Amino acid sequence: MIREVPLDKERIMIGRKPSNEIQIENLAVSGEHACIVTILNDSFLEDLGSTNGTLVNGNPIKKHILQNNDVIEIGKYKLKYVADAPAAGHAASEDFEKTMILRAPPKPAPAAAKPVNEPAPPPKPSTPPPTPRPVPPPAKPVAPAAAPAAGATPQPLAAVQILTGPSAGKELDLVKNLTTLGKPGLQVAVITRRPQGYFITHVEGAKFPVVNGKMIDAQAQPLRDHDVIELAGVKMEFFLKK
């Protein structure tokens, strides 16, 4: 193993140019060879039209959702995607000289640890009977910070309703932290549920999704109540359920 790279950014570029987050100085590697898009705990690998292509577990790919222990081959290099800490010890590969580890983003448990410690002050004022009563109300503002890490209780439930096409009128509740929409091979996007709200991110396809008539860029786009999304030739409305 020559290097370990934590996937701590939403978009990480791989290529020969110095501007890439993962620079591989090898003639078999294109200037901007591939990129990894990470949303919450999921990572997507995309080949950016490289000259020599990108392999995952020996198979050429254009787009690929990375799974634990997937091995990416770019030129003479192997990059191993590790989602579990114990798997890191088995990352070295004998048939390839150079191996990098791509460390998946950590689980959001540490974020919940801070609010858990906050309720510690109430025991001190608990000696006088009147004081413990006012303490619970301050705990309510703190709760939203902890809740997203556990399951996003403070976020209202949202859904998308299909407006055009054969499935017009159908509704899809966004109950998961990550919901994939679109048609594989044509255009794919994901809607993620975060502490700050709902966001849409482009994953696959030459064209980016359109929100309210405006094409989004490579970064995650926040969604607001009644936004209209155009994806893979289908219009759908994002709305918050009351």
Residue runs with pLDDT of under 50 for 5 or more positions: 86-98, 112-116, 139-152
Structure summary, number of beta strands: 21
Number of helices: 2
Rg, please? 22 Å
Report the major sheet: 6 strands, mixed
Order the strands across the largest sheet as they lie in space: 1-11-10-9-6-7
Helix content estimate: under 10%
Strand content: 35-45%
Write down the overall geometry: elongated
Mean pLDDT: 77
Q: Kindly, what is the distance between the CA atoms of the first and last residues, rounded to a whole number of angstroms? A: 51 Å
- SSE string, helix = H, strand = E? EEEEEEEEEEEHHEEEEEEEEEE
Structural class: mainly beta
Q: What distinguishing features does this structure have?
A:
six-stranded mixed sheet; single chain; six-stranded antiparallel sheet; 242 residues
Verbal overview:
With 242 residues, the chain is mainly β. Helix content is 10%, strand content 40%. The strands form four sheets. The protein has a six-stranded mixed sheet, with no helix packed on it. A six-stranded antiparallel sheet has the order 13-12-21-20-17-18, with no helix packed on it. The radius of gyration is 22 Å and the shape is elongated.
